[in-house]
Amino acid sequence: MHLSRLRLRDFRNYARLDATFEPGFQLLVGDNAQGKTNVLEAIYLLATLRSFRGVGGAQMVRHGSKGYFVGAHLVAEAEHELKMYWSASERTLSMDDQPVKRIADYYGRLRCVVFCTEDLQLVKGTGRVRRRFLDLLLAQTQAGYLAALQRYVRALQSRNALLKRPDPDPTVLGPFTQELVLAGQVLMDRRRELVPKLSALSRLAYRRISHDAEELRVEYAPSVRADFAVELAASAGRERAFKSTVLGPHRDDLQLHLSDRSAAQFASEGQKRSLAIALKMAQAEYLSGLFGTPPVLLIDDVMGELDARRRAGLMPLLERAEHARGQVFMTCTQENWPRELGRRLRRWEVRAATLIPGDEASPAGGSCP
Ligand SMILES: Nc1ncnc2c1ncn2[C@@H]1O[C@H](COP(=O)(O)OP(=O)(O)O)[C@@H](O)[C@H]1O
Ligand SMILES: [Mg+2]
Question: 201, 282 in Cβ contact below 8 A?
Answer without folding.
Answer: yes
